[in-house]
Amino acid sequence: MFRSLTVTQKADLFQMFMKVLTHILLACIFFLIMSFNNPQIIIPSRTMAVTILMYISMMLVMNVVYGGYTLGKRNDKSVISSLIIAAVITCAMTYLQLQIMNVNEDNKPYLILLGQDFLLLLAIICAQSFLIAGMVKLGNKLYYIIAPPSNCCVIIYKQNDITEAIIKKVKTYSRNYKINDIVVVGDADLSQVMERNETVFLCGIPTNERIEIILQCYRLRKTIAYLPELEDVIVSNAKQLVIDDALFLLIDNRTMTYTQRIIKRLMDISLSFIGLIISSPFLLLAAIAIKIYDGGHVLYKQERLTINAKQFTLIKLRTMSENAQGNNVKCGSARVSDQRITPVGRILRRFRLDEVPQLLNIIKGEMSIVGPRPEMIENIKTYKKEVPTFTYRERMKAGLTGYAQVEGKYNTSPQDKLVLDLVYIESFTIWLDIKIILRTLTVLFKKESTEGFSPSENQYS
Question: What is the pLDDT of residue 334?
Fold first, then answer.
């Protein structure tokens, strides 16, 4: 029976097996180690039932937020970091629930969070981290044996820097895609090229030609991948509307509801205050380090744009030298190995501590926790000349984090930023905001997320 399955079915079945096995082993580590001091969690009891229910519930939620155990879709580091964060949160919440249940007349008289059980929790996190790293590496190694790279072709409209950049991106995923052909629309061999490949990438194809190729790929049962245009993002969230026997796609162009606005604002204020309280010791140390290094200003202020193109003063910790990034001084975007960034600034940027003062902007109502990243005004003017639809990002309040920050990089192109931000705007829900906030933790593990523009690269492209 297994031999009769397709390669895709075998890969999916293997991934499901590895996913279930990994999570069973992770649960075993938590319950076995924690039972050293809490035997009641492995003995049939109310505590055992509640703890198991709590662990499974948190595990399922965290899998939805962070993507869970996925093979063949993301690189090892991304999957490992996501799983570790999900496991830490799951264990921490289950640990908290267990400690609360332990407060009773037969056990502990009061809540103890940093006792012997906390040391067990640290041991659990370490053991689970090693297990996750091993299972992901092993899983991906076996996965690519079962599912070798898909033969693919890239169809372009014309050779230019954009198509070259896209082809380069595809080639970085050589374990997933093997580029056999690169052809131009109108090539006499186009049909034969599509027939002998499994996946078809479309790069920069005009709408009419693209639709024709998509229909042909659909007829040939080929997998299609193409960069979405603005209209594709808008239609992607359309709802089905049947009037009599006619099917319509309903694009509801409404903004946030009044209830959503209230909830989002309450989240912004509460999380900002909590964030400032928790980060205050680190902010103090960062301010002292900045001052000691060159004696310049601690804070850096710059005019940015938020919802409806309203201008406001963004606040950050200064990460560049005083003459390059002084108070209210306008400067270009950071580049690779930018000499303007101080040693202190590199550390602050790596761990995003320079962004924390923007919580004050959020409390003032100028920004939100989640939303399109506020760009430099000089950059926006150039972006809008090259991509006029860039203005659509201003339909929502600027954010400290966002979908483009979680999925993209510092030097992501304006077109890609626009598409990612519009996906967020058109798909907005409070739950999506919560997911993005939690997923922002993964950005700390992505070194490329702070990657500047290369010296030869136009920062506006």
Answer: 54
Of the segments 154-168, 240-254, 311-325, 364-378, which one has the largest average pLDDT value?
364-378
Rg, C-alpha atoms of the chain: 25
Q: Locate 300 and state its tokens.
A: 């850096």
Are the C-beta atoms of residues 254 and 328 closer than 8 Å to each other? no
Residues 312 and 181 in one domain: no
d(CA 90, CA 102): 18
User: Residue 284 falls within a domain, yes or no?
Assistant: yes
Q: Which domain holds residue 332?
A: 258-450
- Copy the structure tokens of residue 406: 């979680």
- How far is 17 from 7, CA to CA, in rounded Å? 15
200 with 139, same domain: the answer is no
Q: How far is CA 236 from the centre of its chain?
A: 19
292 has a pLDDT exceeding 70: yes
Task: Answer yes or no: is 247 within a domain.
Answer: no
Q: Are 447 and 410 in contact (CB under 8 A)?
A: no
Question: Do 90 and 68 touch, CB atoms closer than 8 A?
Answer: no
**How many domains is the chain partitioned into structurally?**
3
Predicted confidence (pLDDT) per residue in 29-67, tens digit = 999 999 999 998 998 888 899 999 999 999 999 999 988
Give me 330's structure tokens. 């306008």
Q: Are residues 184 and 48 in the same domain?
A: no
CATH number of the domain to which 215 belongs:
3.40.50.2300
